[in-house]
Design a protein that fits this description.
globular; single chain; two-stranded antiparallel sheet; 45% helix; mainly alpha; 3-stranded mixed beta sheet; 7% strand
Length: 260
């Protein structure tokens, strides 16, 4: 009887009074159930997620229940992991609710309002759209260029959605691994050493090159770190300013699994 009363008491408590789950159990369950991991990328079963939103809704309720005051008490790694997981989970929510009607996140919002500027959540009392999260909550507060390999907007040309939540104790290793995976996916980023040497790169690299320069000294230094993989010959080609940089067009089709 006492156990039942305790469960009822905890259920009735406001979300913000409960200890936040920094293991992100509900979000992990969403990824386990609806993410398909393939060799070079991951895909999402959006239709299935639309039919079974319980875990995702619970995760969003959890993150919206965190107050700015509580958030301020967390470590920087806890804060950044929270924001990365929040962004990716909110994208899943935004797309899955409309998965039967759209083939791209750009079809959400219409001609005059981009999906990235739609107010559809309330995070920390001040962030309400995806652009807020990326440029303000993350971009203005964390000088960490590798987040560009962790934030996933639901497009095929995005980095792969990681099959696990970002966790504070492992965050550096997870971000390093994300960068390594994305920058060595030959469909997105490829070094061709044959004369004239070329680096074929994702448009993500071009869009955020100033962030990469700030963290690694130069764009080529960042590329050498991840794409060179310790091979002196490849590193030399990447660092050589005569090696041409060519950027792919961004593919905005959904990162959905088949027709799901």
């Amino acid at each position: 009887m006492k156990a039942q009363i305790l469960v009822l008491f905890l259920f009735l408590l406001p979300t913000g009074l409960l200890a936040f789950d920094h293991q992100y159990g509900n979000y992990a369950a969403v990824l386990k159930d609806h993410l398909v991991v393939q060799k070079t990328h991951t895909s999402v079963r959006y239709h299935a997620l639309r039919k079974h939103p319980t875990k995702l809704d619970a995760f969003i309720q959890e993150i919206e229940g965190v107050s700015a005051e509580d958030f301020a008490q967390w470590t920087p790694n806890q804060q950044l992991a929270f924001l990365l997981n929040a962004y990716n989970g909110l994208v899943l929510k935004l797309i899955s609710e409309r998965s039967l009607e759209i083939d791209s996140i750009n079809q959400i919002g219409g001609i005059f309002v981009s999906a990235f500027y739609i107010d559809f959540f309330n995070l920390l009392g001040q962030y309400h759209d995806l652009d807020d999260l990326e440029t303000k909550a993350i971009g203005e507060n964390f000088k960490e260029a590798r987040v560009h390999f962790a934030l996933v907007c639901g497009a095929r040309s995005c980095p792969p959605l990681r099959a696990e939540p970002y966790l504070a104790p492992r965050l550096n290793d997870q971000l390093e691994d994300q960068a390594m995976i994305f920058l060595n996916n030959p469909k997105e980023n490829l070094l061709s050493s044959a004369y004239p040497a070329h680096l074929y790169l994702s448009e993500i690299i071009k869009l955020h090159k100033e962030d990469f320069k700030a963290q690694y000294g130069s764009l080529r230094q960042m590329l050498a770190h991840f794409m060179g993989q310790g091979n002196p010959e490849d590193i030399a080609v990447i660092l050589n300013k005569q090696t041409h940089l060519t950027y792919h067009n961004y593919i905005w089709d959904l990162n959905r699994y088949g027709n799901e």
